[in-house]
From TrEMBL:
<dbReference type="GO" id="GO:0010124">
    <property type="term" value="P:phenylacetate catabolic process"/>
</dbReference>
<dbReference type="InterPro" id="IPR012347">
    <property type="entry name" value="Ferritin-like"/>
</dbReference>
<dbReference type="InterPro" id="IPR007814">
    <property type="entry name" value="PaaA_PaaC"/>
</dbReference>
<dbReference type="GO" id="GO:0097266">
    <property type="term" value="F:phenylacetyl-CoA 1,2-epoxidase activity"/>
</dbReference>
<keyword id="KW-0614">Plasmid</keyword>
<protein>
    <submittedName>
        <fullName>1,2-phenylacetyl-CoA epoxidase subunit A</fullName>
        <ecNumber>1.14.13.149</ecNumber>
    </submittedName>
</protein>
<dbReference type="GO" id="GO:0005829">
    <property type="term" value="C:cytosol"/>
</dbReference>
<dbReference type="InterPro" id="IPR052703">
    <property type="entry name" value="Aromatic_CoA_ox/epox"/>
</dbReference>
<dbReference type="InterPro" id="IPR009078">
    <property type="entry name" value="Ferritin-like_SF"/>
</dbReference>
<dbReference type="Pfam" id="PF05138">
    <property type="entry name" value="PaaA_PaaC"/>
</dbReference>
<dbReference type="InterPro" id="IPR011881">
    <property type="entry name" value="PaaA"/>
</dbReference>
<keyword id="KW-0560">Oxidoreductase</keyword>
Length: 314
């Protein structure tokens, strides 16, 4: 084993973060670019189902809050793309791969938001699931990713609370509003559980990622934590969990839940979900439509640089 590899291994063992200029195995770099890139894309694509409701938010307050939340997600994507760039990834290349279907984004965003209650459910359940995953990532071994997660988690916690509050208002509203809330839970419960990825015995990347401490907990452990956290919130809202097999196990202290529809999950990963095509089309249009802005910004930056160099020489 070479010396650089030894230093890397020791840092991982002692929980010393790996920084951009440190030596790292190529496979570690590749794994991080894959995961951080997918995470960044999820933030960008995640703006679409919620953005769909900005013009139709029920009140001015809800509209303002939703706009701020969607804008936060764009900010999260920027931290994450920047973290991926510290590993040598190229942002344009990542975007091209997303549009060509060669890089993934979270399965959850391939479901439509059919009602306002779905927007509340996303804030509460989807951001809630994201927090469980991301709190763990605040201690991931790659420094820039871990630091980005600390900030993202603070904002996601706020999103989760506002989602719960919006849901509470619906659940305590008219019978029709309560039904909208229940329908949204029925639609988003299982997809939220799928966000944690395939079960541990079917997760090809987990063993190596856990050895490198890129992931600190397994997909199933985090999923269980989310279920344990969330069931009481559903009950508090006076709603039901759409899972006839759900029951609290006194011996383990955890909720046991039914079988996830993995066929549905893998179909979505293969591009066959209800909104996969629509989401990628929206990103393609935005990417192509924004080219002139990126080109102009690049020319402007170049001119600024030339000017400041000329001033230094003079
Ligand atoms: N969706 O070996 P596995 C958010 C892929 S958004 C799609 O377990 P890994 C928010 C996986 O990539 C939340 N693909 O993989 C934004 C792999 O495929 P490749 C986003 C999935 O990486 C806006 C294959 O399945 N959060 O916060 O060890 C509004 C095998 O899986 C999914 C993150 O991205 C999925 N659900 O573990 C509101 C968190 N699951 O790449 C909220 C960071 C798995 O080999 N990412 N795949 O072709 C992670 O923690 C991990 O990447 C995962 C998967 C737990 C997701």
């Amino acid at each position: 084993m070479n010396n650089q590899q030894q230093i890397f291994d020791q840092k991982i063992e002692k929980d010393i973060s790996i920084e951009p200029k440190d030596w790292m195995p190529d496979a570690y770099r590749k794994t991080l670019i894959r995961q951080i890139g997918q995470h960044a894309h999820s933030e960008v694509v995640g703006m679409l189902p919620e953005g769909n409701w900005i013009t139709r938010a029920p009140t001015l307050k809800r509209k303002a809050v939703l706009m701020a939340k969607v804008q936060d997600e764009a900010g999260h994507a920027l931290y994450l793309y920047s973290a991926a760039e510290t590993l040598g990834a190229d942002r344009d290349d990542m975007m091209d791969k997303l549009i060509a279907g060669r890089m993934k984004y979270s399965s959850i965003f391939n479901y439509p938001t059919l009602s306002w209650a779905d927007v509340a459910a996303i804030g509460w359940l989807v951001d809630g699931a994201a927090i469980v995953n991301q709190v763990a990532l605040c201690r991931t071994s790659y420094g820039p990713y871990a630091r980005a997660m600390v900030r993202v988690c603070k904002e996601e916690s706020f999103h989760q609370r506002q989602g719960f509050e919006a849901m509470m208002q619906l659940a305590n509203g008219t019978p029709e509003q309560k039904q909208l809330a229940q329908d949204a839970v029925n639609r988003f419960w299982w997809p939220a559980l799928m966000m944690f990825g395939p079960s541990d015995d079917n997760s090809p990347n987990s063993a190596q990622s856990m050895q490198w401490k890129v992931k600190l907990f397994s997909n199933d452990d985090l999923r269980q934590k989310f279920v344990d956290n969330t069931v009481s919130q559903v009950l508090q809202l006076g709603l039901t969990v759409p899972d006839p097999d759900l029951k609290f196990n006194e011996d383990t202290g955890h909720y046991q839940f039914g079988e996830i529809n993995w066929d549905e999950f893998f179909a979505i990963l293969a591009g066959k979900g209800p909104c996969n095509h629509e989401r990628i089309e929206a990103r393609r249009k935005a990417w192509e439509g924004g080219k002139w802005v990126r080109d102009s910004a690049a020319v402007y930056a170049q001119k600024q640089q030339q000017q400041s160099q000329a001033q230094k020489v003079a």
